[in-house]
3-oxoacyl-[acyl-carrier protein] reductase (Pseudonocardia parietis), 250 residues
Amino acid sequence: MDLGIRGRRAAVAAAGGGLGYACAEALVAEGASVVICDVSEDRAAAAAERLGGGARWLVADLTDPEAAGRFVEEAAAALGGLDILLVNGPGPPPGTVLETPAEAYQAALDRSLLSVVRMCLAAVPRMRAGGWGRIVAITSLGVRQPYPNLALSNTARAGATGFLRTLAREIAADGITVNSVQPGLHATDRVQSVYGDGELLTETLATIPAGRLGVPEELGALVAFLCSAHAGYVTGVAVPVDGGAYQALL
């Protein structure tokens, strides 16, 4: 299926590897013009080279909300406008509620809520100017079903989901959709750092009906569809991508 986004201009955050890279790869494959970012210049440059398709790169520290907003502004300037934004960023460190001091929450909110806000606010005026836009954010299944030992992420990303759904209602009539994907456990460095490859991971996989970690490219394909011309009537949704781990009716 031709997704109808050839030539569309896309900013893809935190795409030096993992899920962000997989999303950028899917967009490049559909002919979109892509600018990615990473906190590491070497990772950003190497990822853009692997992507091909004229992909460009910037360096941005997405734990800083102002830097996150600047990434979108600089990407739009490089592309001559902006049609697609993939919101992504590094998650907060692990820890239980009782182990995590209250002072740690501000940094978590900066990176997983306020950076999301800044990226979207930088993107929307440019999309409105073109009368078309797609915003897709990578959040977490923890928004629906809190993960043990990820108190900061569960909290901050839930706030981001509330923001995204509110924004979706406000700009739907402008031809701009706002959606999120909620990954469960995928084969990324982040999952490796939290779950390792021993007993904890084995026990966790036993709770996933698919019986395996997700492949980043699987999530990238869904994101590309949500960014497509065909998904213009899909907005305000949050889609679990989790191998069946989330089992509630709503």
